[in-house]
Amino acid sequence: MPPLKKKRRVSCFKEKGEIRNEALSHKPQKKSSNEQQTYEVAEILSCRLDPETTKVNLQFLVSWNNYGPESNSYEPLDSLRLNTVFINYINEKFKEFEADIFVNIANIKEKIKFKRRKALNEDLKVVIMMQKVFPFDPFEYKVHQVIFHTMIDPPKKYKAYLEDLVFRNHFFKLDEVQRIKQDKLAKEISEKEGFPVIVENDVDFEPPPEFNYINKNIFTDELMIANETMLNQTLQSELDSTSAITGCKCGDKCNKDSTICCPKLLKLPFAYKENRHCKVVRLLRQEPIIECCDNCLCDKDCLNRVTQQKRNLSLCLFKTENRGWGVKTLAQIRRGVFILEYTGELMGNVEAGKRPENAYLFDLNMDRLNHGFYTIDAFHYGNLARFVNHSCDPNSSIWIVSDCTKNPKSQKLCIFALRQIEKDEEITIDYSPVESVPTSDRMNASRTYYVECHCGSKACRGTIFLNA
User: Fold this and answer.
1) How large is the greatest C-alpha to C-alpha distance in the chain, in angstroms?
2) Model pLDDT, residue 144
3) How far, in Å, CA of 414 to CA of 385, rounded?
């Protein structure tokens, strides 16, 4: 399944000595005046490697407007990179030799392909660290491609330097694609969830998986739609006693002392309480939550509508070391706070059994061992909750939330904090709580399997039971 956002790889420009808009404060010769003269670049005449260093530093011979050849001077790349004349010179040369440059770079890529594979398989963390410490500059890479091609006999150190640039460009491109997808997904999640979410990956260059983001469950099981009447009849024994209940008549904000609020009408406990200006769940783990619905007379800010209200959260979707993608909080979350709803395709157990990917299936019914009609599949359609990982010692848990009509279609899987979750701590749930693991006489062996657990907690059971 499914730490702050990776620093962007941006060009590292030196402010000192920059030439902007074709102008430069430069002194090619001594002047009698003490005032600094301003010179404009007229033309780039040639290029060389700095003869006074063993490093690869390019120097460009520049002629200046309104000055003769005796004023020509060699200028470093860092002083010219923003100059219009220089940029045009590089672009024209690149266009002129583009086909030959492409062949040259292709040959270098072929030469270093084993180095790239080794980096992807063994040294990826080193590559990512180097990308951060030494940001890659695409324009500088373009300059070196042009200059290398124009040299008649480039020295060995320059060949090695260009090979290194080709190597780094490969990972820069991977990172660029990753960042675009991460930014797009982070924006979509933030807009749809109503609170800030960022996406980061400091482990590898894998972009976030693609899926359709939804805030509410969608009903896609054609067989179940066609057999709606049959399903209602199957559930009639449950619904008979509550069929007349359509909503509460509180008229104001509901509370635990109300005798006509939705949970009390179903003879169930009131789920929430106010705790230091924060609405939190007050029930024991796995007790059903009955909220007010659209038919109720209470207002939208009612205490019994927690999962329907805006949340004050800040979350991060991040790549873990050994458990795929996960979700962590960027601010402290108090015990009992509603975090996320697990959304996806709402379907019957027959359709769920046909799904080839079962890692995102969650049974919705509390009494699934009796009939198990509804399952949520978050593989193709889902939200941020699909990335919440398992832990044998979780800090959060899933509650089933419904309303007083007890219509299975209105039921939701909602994640609440079991304890206080600290900043930068990963949000986890137990995929297979002990009370939900069936005994051997109730187990469907054809759909039951165990997977190795990597939660790393002291209470780790070693395996996770899944009944897909």
Assistant:
1) 104
2) 95
3) 9
Question: In terms of DSSP H, where are the helices of 240-333?
Answer: 262-265
CA distances from 132 to 8, 116, 137 (A): 8, 18, 12
Judge whether 381 and 360 are in contact, CB under 8 Å. Answer: no
> Do residues 195 and 315 lie in contact, with contact meaning Cβ atoms separated by under 8 Å?
yes
Q: Is the pLDDT of residue 140 over 90?
A: yes
Average pLDDT over every residue of 234-260: 69
Rounded-to-integer distance, Cα 427 and Cα 192, Å: 20
Contact predicate 390/455, CB 8 Å: yes
Question: What span, in angstroms and rounded, lies between the C-alpha atoms of 180 and 176?
Answer: 6
Beta-carbon count within 10 A of 138 CB: 13
Number of H helices, E strands in the chain: 12, 23
Our measurement of the distance from residue 33's CA atom to the centroid of its chain's CA atoms, rounded to an integer in Å, reads 59
- Write the single-letter amino acid at 265: L
Write out pLDDT tens, residues 356-411: 777 788 887 644 444 446 788 999 999 999 999 999 999 999 998 988 876 777 88
Q: Decide if 236 contacts 407 (C-beta within 8 A).
A: no
Q: Is residue 442 pLDDT above 70, yes or no?
A: no
Q: How far is CA 212 from CA 114, 298, 341, 379, 381, in A?
A: 36, 33, 15, 9, 5
Alpha helices, DSSP H, located in 194-247: 222-226, 228-234, 236-239
Q: Say what angle helices 156-193 and 113-121 make with each other, to 10 degrees.
A: 40
